[in-house]
Amino acid sequence: MLELPEVATLHLLVTVAETGSLRQAAGLHGISQPAVSQRLRGLERRLGLRLLERSTVGSTLTPAGAAVVDWARPVLEASRELALGVAALRAEQAGQLRLAASMTVAEYLVPGWLARLHAAEPDLDVALRVGNSEQVAAMVRDRRADLGFVEGTSVPTGLRSRTVGADELLVVVAPGHRWSRRAAGVRPDELAAARLVLREEGSGTRDVFVRRLAAAGHRVHAGLELGSTTAIKAAVMAGEGPGVLSALAVGAELADGRLVAVTVRDLRFERRFRAVWLPGRDPSGPAARLLATATRSPGRRPRRAPTRRGA
């Protein structure tokens, strides 16, 4: 029975047919021209056929060579499909993980979780997408993410969840703001009436803040909406108005005096961080291991920062 040729050698033959040149085929395959010539002569001996007419101006297929090239093309396509399928299986077994996380979770919690997970699974590959909590929930529902992490007061519709941490939102101002010297803090109605710097709608941070004030009978006025924690911090420090941010996000600024936390009388803005996934598709493999890592992680509830006391 005829011994089948190697797929790589068939690929060389097809490339020579397409370029008409042993030299160009050699360059495309990253090998020397003599190596190409040697392998194709070996293929001719194995098949017992003359496949190429060689000349000083190039190489052309013989009729037999043209037939072999036509038969080789579907073989090469099938080999590519085989390689892609095997790669996908290997990637799944090696631990490919599609992860989505809200901005606060992604910036302040996910790196630590991944560091602990990678210590046990150094070959784990993670693709992380970042958005607000509403966007993360949509990624999980659309199966663009295996596991999501959101912040807020409730579980997103149509998803299962597990609490993995807690957080508190702080009202912060620039050191020169009139509230920075309010030893007794501000009333909820004063806060609601202020020109606030807030995250965009769909953000878990904004959702918690708005819901807590609404429960106290007040509607929020957003004077400026920004799409990131960094932008809000910069705007507040520039004097745009009071901002509402995670305590995780403002520790350094509170410590060095660039921001001042303001107490809101009789009101605190606590929230939970949740892992979310599709019903009927409980996390497995790398997703389950990351969820376990996040659940076991030490609590990250920050201590409430003191307000600046003044006259």
UniProtKB/TrEMBL annotation:
**Its domain of life?**
Bacteria
Region annotated Disordered, chain positions: 286-311
Q: Where is the composition biased (Basic residues)?
A: 298-311
UniProt keyword annotation of Ribonucleoprotein present:
no
CDD domains reported in the protein's UniProt record: PBP2_CysL_like
**Keyword Transcription among record annotations:** yes
- Domain HTH lysR-type stretches: 5-62
**Under the GO molecular function aspect, what terms does this record hold?**
DNA-binding transcription factor activity; transcription cis-regulatory region binding
The cross-references to InterPro entries, in alphabetical order and at most eight, read: LysR_HTH_N (IPR000847), LysR_subst-bd (IPR005119), WH-like_DNA-bd_sf (IPR036388), WH_DNA-bd_sf (IPR036390)
Q: What are the UniProt keywords, alphabetically? A: DNA-binding, Transcription, Transcription regulation
UniProt record similarity statement:
Belongs to the LysR transcriptional regulatory family.
**What is the protein name given in its UniProt record?**
DNA-binding transcriptional regulator, LysR family
